[in-house]
Amino acid sequence: MSIESGALTADQRTELLNHEVGRFALEGWTVSTVAGNQAVLQRKKRIGFWGNLFLTFVTWGLWMIVVLLRILNRRIESLILTVDHAGRVTREFSHPPGTLLTIKMWAPSGSNRRPKD
């Protein structure tokens, strides 16, 4: 495959992957590994503030025990970013049961790379 047929060079795919990793890093994800055209990102699952605050007041503070247990045992969310030869970025989110949800986001169309719907 040549560049004219839509394939990106390794440097272009790396640049595209670094851009996506940077976007997720701004959202609180940490980079676990980066190898070739794939990156693994992780973050701790968030705990809802307002609902827990309401339940803490309603139960006269007893709900705080549950909140503390949730804080100590937070699950880790994982995200796998992959860039193929055409420049399509694939995101795989892992969910607690261990299943992966795959979302194909977009492919470049020349120099102006924008998401396609």
Brief rundown of the structure:
With 117 residues, this protein is α+β, with helices and mostly antiparallel strands. 32% of the residues lie in helices and 29% in strands.
Core attributes:
single chain; 117 residues; alpha+beta; five-stranded antiparallel β-sheet; 3 helices; 5 strands
Describe this structure in words.
The chain is α+β, with helices and mostly antiparallel strands and 117 residues long. The chain has a domain at 3-45 and 74-106. Helix content is 32%, strand content 29%. It is rod-shaped.
Write the SSE topology.
Blueprint: H1 10-26, E1 30-35, E2 38-44, H2 49-58, H3 63-72, E3 76-83, E4 89-94, E5 100-106
Antiparallel strand pairs: 1-2, 2-3, 3-4, 4-5
Strand elements, count: 5
* Strands ordered across the widest β-sheet: 1-2-3-4-5
Q: Based on CA inertia axes, which overall geometry fits?
A: rod-shaped
The portion of residues assigned to helices is: 25-40%
What separation lies between the terminal Cα atoms?
A: 26 Å
Summarize the biggest pleated sheet.
5 strands, antiparallel
- Helix count? 3
Element pattern in H and E: HEEHHEEE
Strand content: 25-35%
Q: Gyration radius, to the nearest Å?
A: 19 Å
